[in-house]
Amino acid sequence: MIYLDNAATTVHKPQVVIDAVVDALKHLGNAGRGATDESLQSARTVFSAREEINTLINGEDARQIAFSLNVTEALNTAIRGLLHPGDHVISSVMEHNSVIRPLNDLQDKGVEVTYLPMSKDWCISPEDVLKALKPNTKALVLTHASNVTGNINPIKEIVQALAGRNILVILDAAQSAGAIPIDVQDLGVDVLCFTGHKSLLGPQGTGGLYVRKGLTIDVLKSGGTGVETFNPHQPLAMPTHLEAGTLNGHGLAGLAAAVEYILNIGVENIHQEELQLMNKFYQAVTEMEEVKVYGNFNKDKCPIVSLNIGDWDSSEVSDRLLEDFGIATRSGGHCAPLMHQALGTVDQGLVRFSFSHFTTEEEVEEAIKAVRSLAEEYRQMK
Question: Is the N-terminal amide bond of 85 cis, ω within 30° of 0?
Answer without folding.
Answer: no
